[in-house]
């Protein structure tokens, strides 16, 4: 299936006026941005500004400093706050464009109009000025290109339920930038594309890409200890509609995004969905001292939350806060997500600091935020995943209470915290850890209908994204190699980054030559990865955790474009044991539907999910519980038999005996996973869980030996 050009419209317009020597006529007022019309070199340019008194289109020859033409929008080419003009006789391959917007200058009222500023089209589909990664201009000049889209997707649309996803969070550049990645186009969309066979082999079913919208990695560039530190992560959006051109292996003039589309198409062909990490809570324009890129110059007092004296509220921790619930900004966000869904076939979006999306224009929390409701009910977005990071830097923490309307899932930060603590032996966390493992029913069941939470029994199928590690914090290896963060390389005297890591170095800080410590660390990593993949809810882990990649104790590597952040693929061989273990656990999760969702009632009478405090049907998990197990059960219509899985966890430093439930006649427990290295095979009713270990048992048919 070939995409229709989403930027064109089958309409024929004719010149009516002349402006700066170009024939012009009123444009497509209901289509934001630059729209090529496909005849006579006609392009419709549409912007909107409530406070502007004049708008000028600036045309540049590619790469030149000064515009070769300045075309003022005729006053009659305005309807309401929208300015729209078709310019004829343009060759889209030969120019770049920006805008000059005039109007009142009154900072105390949030009005920052200045015709001297060259402003990037807010709806630009491609951005110049950031093509070469890490190139710093004294004064960045962002300009836009007109993009013509035509791409053959080959009918790749698909839909996979949340509970069937295994999400793999990655940074496009860092994933293949290291030499050990062995790709021909390191650090790019093409480099990631070359790694698809590995991802398919591993078994993950979704990649969650850290920001790929155009961002300014050189903002706040600095040098420390001989290294250049930049905004490597990319939570610093310049343009919401344009892919980051420095992630492309080749220049894409006027068809920007095709390399990304090829990556997405091939991921889909491999059965892997694509989720984008999107940043609508703040922009790269920063605070009062930040640059003018676009929003400040078009309508500063609309796009940002401002204090009564015209300064910026900073609920993002990054200088400004986008005014998400203003109708104009709502429209921008909805149009952006629709654009990526239609033109890039994106399967889901993870919203950075999503609680900001629920704040009113004065910064106060809203009970029923209109933007969140609109996204939940938008028809074009009805098939994509919406995942909230349900907190912000202003103190809102909404895990379990984020307004969902049966559509929004959440990064379950409470899962991370409880499991990190319990796994390292904080047994007083046992009651909460048990609830997190079975889908956090206390958070995602029996919520008021107005919030759209699930009815009883839903148990977090689609609500809880479980994770122990992500980009923000320790890697899985570092979680068991460091008691504290080691962010000295960031240049802030180790003051940045979280202090509440709930980590344990297993007896020695950092790399160890002690084989017993390294053996223990491997077991702890397996326990964490194993329980994550055996928990109810959608599992997510950080790229590289499957082979024990390290960031050398840095838990806030946002500025490290080097070996600290780049994956070291040599660990695939060095740590083959945990890599194969992770692959096996993903496969085991896929094999047993009862782990992922409620099936029909099991014939044996077992409930769908039950928690046992070491003895059968004893659900009393206390702050002294050192070992517990969860049993998943249900009737599998494919096998026409009960599917029963038992996940056992001992977090104590000594062995703990547990007693398994009786199975129906003809079935017995079989050990299929043991992080303590025990042999697989039939297990007895009483099992001694080895110190700090995970075991998974499956009910299988038992044929007694012939006498």
From TrEMBL:
One Pfam family it belongs to: CBM_48
Molecular-function GO terms, alphabetical: hydrolase activity, hydrolyzing O-glycosyl compounds
Annotated Glycosyl hydrolase family 13 catalytic domain residues: 169-589
Superkingdom in the source lineage: Bacteria
Single biological process term from Gene Ontology: carbohydrate metabolic process
Annotated SMART domains: Aamy
CDD domains: AmyAc_Glg_debranch, E_set_GDE_N
Record InterPro entries: GH (IPR017853), GH13_cat_dom (IPR006047), Glyco_hydro_13_N (IPR004193), Glyco_hydro_b (IPR013780), Ig-like_fold (IPR013783), Ig_E-set (IPR014756)
Record-stated family: Belongs to the glycosyl hydrolase 13 family.
Name under which the protein is recorded: Glycogen debranching enzyme
């Amino acid at each position: 299936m070939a995409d229709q050009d989403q930027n064109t419209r089958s309409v024929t317009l004719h010149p009516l006026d002349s402006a700066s020597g170009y024939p012009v006529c009123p444009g497509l007022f209901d289509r934001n941005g630059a729209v090529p019309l496909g005849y006579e070199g006609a392009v419709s340019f549409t912007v909107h500004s409530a406070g502007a008194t004049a708008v000028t289109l600036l045309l540049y020859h590619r790469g030149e400093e000064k515009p070769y033409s300045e075309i003022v929008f005729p006053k009659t080419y305005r309807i309401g706050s929208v300015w729209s003009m078709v310019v004829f006789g343009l060759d889209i391959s030969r120019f770049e464009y920006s805008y000059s917007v005039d109007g009142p200058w009154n900072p105390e009222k949030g009005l920052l109009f200045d015709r001297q500023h060259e402003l990037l089209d807010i709806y630009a589909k491609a951005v110049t000025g950031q093509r070469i990664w890490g190139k710093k201009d004294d004064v960045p000049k962002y300009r836009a290109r007109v993009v013509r889209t035509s791409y053959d997707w080959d009918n790749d649309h698909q839909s996979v339920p949340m509970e069937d996803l295994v999400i793999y969070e990655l940074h496009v550049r860092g994933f293949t930038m290291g030499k050990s990645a062995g790709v021909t186009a390191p650090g790019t969309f093409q480099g990631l594309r070359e790694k698809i066979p590995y991802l398919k082999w591993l078994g993950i079913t979704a990649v969650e890409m850290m920001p790929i919208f155009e961002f300014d990695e050189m903002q706040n560039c600095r040098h420390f200890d001989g290294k250049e530190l930049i905004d490597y992560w990319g939570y610093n959006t310049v343009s919401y509609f344009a892919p980051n051109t420095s992630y492309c292996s080749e220049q894409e003039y006027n068809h920007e995004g095709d390399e990304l589309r090829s990556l997405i198409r091939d991921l889909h062909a491999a059965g892997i969905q694509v989720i984008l990490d999107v940043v609508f809570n703040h922009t790269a324009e920063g605070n009062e001292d930040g640059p003018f890129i676009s929003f400040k110059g078009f309508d500063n007092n609309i796009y940002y939350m401002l204090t009564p004296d015209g300064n910026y509220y900073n609920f993002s921790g990054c200088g400004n806060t986008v005014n998400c619930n203003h109708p104009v900004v709502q429209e921008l966000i909805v149009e952006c997500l629709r654009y990526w869904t239609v033109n890039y076939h994106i399967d889901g979006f993870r919203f950075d600091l999503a609680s900001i999306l629920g704040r009113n224009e004065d910064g106060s929390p809203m009970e029923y935020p209109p933007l969140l409701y609109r996204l939940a009910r938008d028809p074009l977005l009805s098939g994509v995943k919406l995942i909230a990071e349900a907190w912000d830097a202003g103190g809102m923490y909404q895990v379990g209470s984020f307004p969902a309307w049966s559509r929004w899932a959440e990064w379950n930060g409470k899962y991370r915290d409880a499991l990190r603590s319990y796994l390292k032996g904080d047994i007083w966390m046992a009651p909460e850890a048990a609830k997190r493992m079975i889908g956090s029913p206390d958070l995602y069941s029996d919520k008021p209908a107005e919030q759209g939470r699930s009815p009883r029994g839903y148990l977090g199928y689609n609500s809880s994204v479980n994770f122990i590690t992500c980009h923000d914090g320790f890697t899985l290896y570092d979680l068991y190699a460091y008691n504290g963060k080691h962010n000295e390389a960031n240049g802030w005297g180790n003051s940045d980054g979280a202090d509440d890591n709930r980590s344990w170095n297993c007896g020695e800080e950092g790399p160890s030559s002690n084989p017993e410590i390294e053996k223990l660390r491997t077991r702890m990593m397996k326990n964490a990865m194993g329980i994550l993949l055996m928990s109810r809810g959608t599992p997510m882990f950080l790229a590289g955790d499957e082979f024990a990649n390290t960031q050398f104790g840095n838990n806030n590597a946002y500025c490290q474009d080097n070996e600290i952040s780049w994956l070291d693929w040599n660990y695939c061989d060095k740590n083959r044991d945990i890599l194969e273990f992770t692959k096996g656990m993903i496969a085991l999760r896929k094999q047993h539907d009862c782990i992922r969702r409620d099936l029909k009632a099991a014939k044996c009478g077992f409930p769908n999910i039950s928690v046992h405090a070491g003895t059968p049907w004893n659900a009393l998990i206390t702050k002294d519980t050192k070992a517990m197990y969860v049993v998943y059960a249900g009737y599998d219509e494919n096998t026409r038999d009960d599917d029963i899985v038992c996940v056992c966890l001992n977090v104590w430093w000594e062995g703990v005996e547990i007693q398994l439930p009786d199975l129906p006649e003809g079935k017995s427990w079989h050990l299929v996973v043991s992080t303590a290295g025990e042999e697989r095979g039939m297990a007895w009713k009483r099992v001694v869980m080895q110190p700090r270990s995970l075991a998974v048992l499956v009910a299988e048919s038992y044929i007694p030996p012939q006498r």
